[in-house]
Structures are given as C-alpha cells and as structure tokens.
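User:
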Amino acid sequence: ILADGTSNTVDVTLPDATTITGRIYVIKAIDITFAVKVLTTSSQTIDGGANHTFTSANEAIQVQSDGSDWQIIVKA
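Assistant: Predicted structure:
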C-alpha cells in the first residue's frame, strides 16, 4: 500500500487482525508533508502501540496479524 501525504493527512486502516491470522501488509509512506498514519480496528495494536506514524518519506513497514494484533516484521 503506497500512502502519499503530499496534500492531506493519510490514514491507512488495517482490517480486523482476529479474522486474518498470518496476513501480511507492506505500507510505504511516499511523502509525509502531511501525516501518514497506520491505524487499527477494534482497539488492536501495532507492536503494542495504538497506531504507527511514519517519520520520514519513503519509510516502509511490513506488518503481520498474530491473530489478535499487528506486529511489525520489517521497518525500513
């Protein structure tokens, strides 16, 4: 998933982790002029946090559902 925060804040919302154990997503922030965030549903977490906010352009994360939450597998 490519997220471009050039002109507006971009929120990428992951699906319910409890229904897709093992599923992997790769999200890349092309530009962060405005905020680019990865959010969850149903109060789930990403590596224990409520969300993930990209801090630099071209940053990418790979997340995987562990059956209850999302875990960051790779951060680049």
